[in-house]
Amino acid sequence: MSLGKTIKLVVYELLLYACLCVPIFVVMERFASLMWQVRSKDLVAYWLVVAASIAYVTSVTLVVWVPLKYFILRSRFFSEVTAWRPVTLAFVILSTLPCFAIVVASSKVQLDGEDRFDGFTELPVSLVLFSLVIVDVVERIRPFRLTGQAEGLEHAFEMPTPVLTHLEQVPTVSSQLSVDRGQNGLPTQLEGINGSFGCRRADSEGYFSRASSSSYLYSTRATSGRFGFLWAREPRADLFVDSFLFWMDTAEMVRAAEEPSVYYSAWIFPVYLLAYLSVLRLVVSPDSPMLSSLGVMVQDLPFLIVRICLIAVFGHVTPLFYVMKNMLVCLTFLYFHFLTKLKIFKMTSMF
């Protein structure tokens, strides 16, 4: 292994390990501060929680994380796994699950008492979600180089899709019959037929030219000139944008749980439970066909139900934009996957 690949491997592993440990330490420290206030500023409770976090991270590192990384780097079994990501699964179980559990436990501790000390501000939860983004980016960008141009890499980050290469106009049956009748000397309405056919032909040719030219919109080649950089597309940079967009809905759901009316109530349990179920989508490979259906079943449909309930109980604690987004995704998934297969929707004369 060359020096550059060794440095890249070490940097990636340090990033993954930092994403595993830092959120746990931050969340546990906040919980320790909460216990210090609940128990009348008892330092023993504070240091017990801190010691428990250190012991947990040490045990997870020695018992699970280091052996798992060793087998992944040395064994062929994990290298042949493509449908799901073992490292991401271990990260979601060992880091994200304890962090969400501690946040819910902090709410439960204050629900049992009369005082409200800590609303568990936005920092710990944002740190957990940011760690998930970093893990996703590292796992997806690991096989590719970080230097040089992106030539040859633009298709490596995308799912294979049909490519429009060549289009020809296919004559209709009516136009073919009109041509045959004209050759046989039979009377034909040349003006009406030719006029209407000419219009259709012009429209079809215009449609074909627009369809073929639409592939230019997805071109990754940069044009020359002073402002050529505006047309350039960098798939490695787009990967970061896609990873953040992947978590926007989950981040908003968790943010709604930080509202005091929701946080100091029993509704925090279903909110964080569904948020964690949506996190499990990260385990599936990014190019897996299951990702679309999993997004509806574990995110959009449950989030839609919970958001409607939260708005009905607490008012507008979550934006209506996300409610409409979840509703539209569920309806389009139902329509295009199930309703379009019915006989009534197979009639070509409708649309």
From TrEMBL:
Superkingdom as given in the UniProt entry = Eukaryota
Q: Which InterPro entries match?
A: Transmembrane_26, Uncharacterised_FAM23-like_TM
Cite the entry's keywords alphabetically.
Membrane, Transmembrane, Transmembrane helix
Q: Which residues form a coiled coil?
A: none
Provide the transmembrane region boundaries: 12-32, 44-66, 87-107, 119-138, 262-284, 304-336
Q: Does the keyword Cytoplasm apply?
A: no
Record carries keyword Membrane: yes
State the name under which the record lists this protein: Transmembrane protein 236
Instruction: Give the species.
Output: Denticeps clupeoides (denticle herring)
The gene from which this protein is expressed is: tmem236
